[in-house]
Amino acid sequence: MKTFDLPDLGEGLTEAEIVTWHVAEGDTIEADQPLASVETAKAVVEVPSPYSGRVTKLYAAEGEVAEVGKPLVDFAIDGEDNAEAAKPAQDKSPVAKPAAETGEGEAGTTESVREDSGTVVGAMPAGEDDLEETAIVRKRARKKNARPKAAPAARARARELGVALAEIEATGHRGQITPSDVERHAEQGKAHPAAVPSPAQAQPAKPMNYGQAEPVRGPRRTMAQTMSASRDLVMPTSIFDDADINAWQPGQDITARVIRALVAGCRAEPILNTWFDGEAMTRTIHENVDLALAVDTPDGLIVPVIRNVETLSGEVLRHELNRVKTATRERTVSPQDMLNPTITLSNFGMMAGRYASPVIVPPQVAIVGTGGIRHDVVAVMGAIETHQRIPISITFDHRCATGGEACRFLAAMIADLAKPQ
User: What is the CA 179 to chain-centroid distance, rounded?
Assistant: First the structure.
């Protein structure tokens, strides 16, 4: 009997959610065949089997969170007395040193993550052409007794309509049940909502129904953990101002202009494009600007990174923006595309809001937020005019950057945004 523990998946994480089991207890599997698909911080990866043999026990169900280093699967190995039969799948590559923790915003390099792919037992090549850690899982038939995948809004709607989630045909991404699926199912006459009594018939002192607690998983779980780390490790301070863009020529790409202005801020005050280690009391000031973009998705906040934005033209930058946003919303963005940003931009104003205090993800030192463009009344040479302005919010880690440095960064952004083009 061999017990296989959940390996370090090379991202410095301590846990992963079981998305899909490719085997069941009693199945026979060959070494290196897919054993399970697991979701780490923001990507779904396949874990190969380290042994050839029969699966005797699965330690976690689909939808449950398994801890790295804890038992995942038990195997009965054919000819277990034979030492060769009991060996894991052959991996002649040298054992890589564990990568530095490289969760959202944590220091490390893409190269170290690739080397650490050796920590996943079995043949798992580290080449970019062979290792494909994407957030798309092949569509599979729902397993018997598997927990239906549904967004919280869909679960709430199902409770309102008296619909059993297990009976609903899912049309959402990766087999997820959407609120529309629930309502369509109800319209077909399959829902059985409880009759609503009249006030005269209502029973007094009936207990209130506040719904049921459900686990927070995937990107939302990662977001909660990252925000807790920020609370514990950062001394945040925020400043706000507005950039007058009334002189802009027609056809300006707003997001591309904001990113160009952010680069101008980094050039004026590089200290805000820095990683800071408060425990070691060290800082790493970067010349390249690897920009993290906070993207809102139904699964939670996901933050892909565009590398070296300071070198990109407006046209190339727009292409990259479209690419990463599409990949993020389709959950095809790879873990390498979310590692090691040097500074973050949150364009929350596309939805609502003027100013905010965006949260820094350590070891970064700063995050920039932009509110919605507005027509403001301004005084010009003793007269009153209406100008278009972009609200800008900057949160910086006051342990590493001074207020003066943050103000000069903001002033450089405002000056660049004021240019006609």
Answer: 23
pLDDT at 13 over 80: no
Reported as a single tens digit per residue, the pLDDT across 240-258 is 999 999 999 999 999 999 9
Nearest to 137 by CA among 306, 31, 21: 21
**Same fold for the pair 148-202+211-215 and 218-417:** no
- Both tokens of 352, joined, read 């609502």
Structure tokens at 41: 């911080």
Which residues are within 8 A (CB) of 261 and not within 5 positions of it... i.e. 6 or more apart? 243, 412, 413, 414, 416, 417
For residue 80, the model assigns a pLDDT of: 64
Both tokens of 185, joined, read: 């199912």
- Is pLDDT above 50 for 92? no
Residue 12 confidence class, pLDDT cut points 50, 70, 90: low
The type of residue at 272 is L
DSSP class of residue 265?
Answer: H
Q: What CATH superfamily is the domain 148-202+211-215?
A: E3-binding domain (4.10.320.10)
CB of 288 closer than 8 Å to CB of 307: yes
> 385 in helix, strand or coil?
strand
Instruction: Label residue 322 exposed, middle or buried (CB < 10 Å: 0-12, 13-18, 19+).
Output: exposed
**pLDDT value of position 102:** 37
Q: Which amino acid is at 277?
A: D
Architecture field, domain 2-119: Beta Barrel (2.40)
DSSP, res 64 = -
What does the domain layout of the chain look like in residue ranges?
A: 2-119, 148-202+211-215, 218-417
C-beta of residue 119 within 8 angstroms of C-beta of residue 8: yes
Per the CB < 8 A criterion, the answer to whether 161 and 182 are in contact is: yes
With a cut of 60, say whether residue 10 has pLDDT above it: yes
HSE-CB for 155 with a 13 A CA cutoff: 13
**Which is more confidently placed, 301 or 341?**
341
> In the CATH hierarchy, which fold is given to the domain comprising 218-417?
Chloramphenicol Acetyltransferase (3.30.559)
Model confidence, pTM: 0.56
User: What is the C-alpha separation between 224 and 343, in angstroms, rounded?
Assistant: 20
Report the alpha-carbon distance of residue 416 to residue 263 in Å, rounded.
Answer: 10
- Supply the mean pLDDT for the chain: 79
pLDDT at 257: 96
* 106-119 as b/e: b if 16+ CB within 10 A: bbbebebbbbbbbb
